[in-house]
Amino acid sequence: KAKELGRNNFQYFSADMNQDATERLGTLNALRQALANDEFVLHYQPKINLLTGAVVGAEALVRWRSPARGMVTPNDFIPLAEESGLIIDIGAWVLRTACAQAMAWRQEGHGGRDALMVSVNLSPSQLMRDDIVDVVAGVLAATGLPPRLLELEITETVVMRDIEKSLDKLARLKMLGIRISIDDFGTGHSSLNYLKRLPVDILKIDRSFVNDIATDEDDAAIVKAIISLARILNLDVVAEGVETEAQRRFLMENGCDVGQGYHFSRPLPAAAFASAWLALPGETAGTGRLAPAR
Ligand code: C2E
Ligand code: MG
Ligand code: MG
Ligand code: MG
After folding, report:
1. In the Cβ-directed half-sphere of 188, how many Cα atoms lie within 13 Å?
2. Where is the EAL domain (predicted)?
3. How far is the CA of 14 from the centre of ligand 4 (A)?
4. pLDDT at residue 16 in the model
5. Residue 290 has pLDDT above 60, yes or no
6. For residue 17, what pLDDT band results from cuts at 50, 70 and 90?
7. CB distance 46 to ligand 1 below 6 Å
8. pTM (2 decimals)?
9. CA of 11 to the centre of ligand 3 (A)
10. Measured between alpha carbons, how far is 116 from 102 in angstroms, rounded to an integer?
11. Ligand 1 within 6 A of 259 CB?
């Protein structure tokens, strides 16, 4: 930022900046304690079959329940966790907790015969670590979750930044039997040539495109193009940020099978997710928009 303002501009380094730095340090120290103090929690957002309304999976999304700051959303602490390296431990906790939860739901008989998939976001530095494959394998072994029920979400920019390294990592992760999706697809600069070579299973259409599909012709065209691309490459496609019935219908009619968004449900704490979306044997499944609004 300072660079943008020009080399001779010293005004930027004002009291403001010092305060920012102090605040950052405070947040960083608090974040360091957060794991030990058990301050993280996962919320789960259902992935919905757009045709039937059935829940097919859940994306685990981390929140920080800070005693001093209240409920902090990932955008407000993941970047700092990423820069400081804390994301490695936080990410491992997320993976373990999400897999253990999915396994618990499975053992309780939630979700019926069709087992529920769980999706976990993987940060750039997690993916680039040499031990990531061992970490994932270790969590699968420790929790007993069948690998086919785990999906890792990786953002497009990360993969494209270091394509050769990503190809190797993703190939070895795939060999564990898990599924891999490209998150926020359309916002980065995927080379179609590499996309073809990437061992991934799913494209997640970024919600910035989904937002205006019912009203903006360009966004509608982009979303249709992504859906066709997915079909050509033999990938599944998931739309994020589905907020209205018009968006759901557009996506369904254009061949997108799965969506997630506030139209169906916000991310919910585990217990609330289970009671809204998962049926025990003998119960009627929680169905789509009949779920209580929260
Ligand atoms: P993401 O993986 O693309 O997750 C989707 C985000 O969109 C979530 O925000 C979700 O709550 C929000 N969302 C879902 N449906 C709608 C909708 O209909 N409308 C709108 N406006 N938003 C919707 P959240 O939970 O704040 O997470 C933000 C980002 O933080 C995630 O984006 C992901 O990149 C990152 N993140 C979350 N949890 C983790 C984690 O455990 N590890 C890592 N490395 N990153 C995480
Ligand atoms: Mg995601
Ligand atoms: Mg996303
Ligand atoms: Mg997104």
Report:
1. 20
2. 24-281
3. 34
4. 59
5. no
6. low
7. no
8. 0.90
9. 37
10. 7
11. no
Lookup: tokens for 68: 């001093």
Residue 204 · residue 183 · CB < 8 Å: yes
Q: Which of 31, 45, 61 to mutate to test the pocket of ligand 1 (most atoms within 8 A of CB)?
A: 61
Residue with CA nearest ligand 1 atom 45: 121
For every residue of the chain, which 3-state class applies, written as one string? CCCCCCCCCCCCCCHHHHHHHHHHHHHHHHHHHHCCCCCEEEEEEEEEECCCCCEEEEEEEEEEEECCCEEECHHHCHHHHHHHCCHHHHHHHHHHHHHHHHHHHHHCCCCCCCCCEEEEECCHHHHHCCCHHHHHHHHHHHHCCCHHHEEEEEEHHHHHHCHHHHHHHHHHHHCCCCEEEEEEECCCCCCHHHHHHCCCCEEEECHHHHCCCCCCHHHHHHHHHHHHHHHHCCCEEEECCCCCHHHHHHHHHCCCCEECCCCCCCCEEHHHHHHHHCCCCCCCCCCHHHCCCC
Q: List all residues 6 or more positions away from 203 whose beta carbon is below 8 Å from its beta carbon.
A: 181, 182, 185, 226, 229, 230, 235, 236, 237, 238
With the most atoms of ligand 1 within 8 angstroms of its CB, the residue from 123, 240, 244 to mutate is 240
- pLDDT > 90? residue 112: no
pLDDT value for 189:
75
- How far apart CA 175 and CA 167 sit, in angstroms, is 12
Q: b vs e for 249-264, b when ≥16 Cβ sit within 10 Å of the residue's Cβ?
A: ebbbebebbbbbbebb
**Tokens 């697809």 — which residue?**
185
Any atom of ligand 1 within 6 Å of the Cβ of 240: yes
Q: Cα separation of 273 and 23, whole Å?
A: 34
Q: Predicted ipTM?
A: 0.98
Q: Which ligand is nearest to the CA of 267?
A: 1
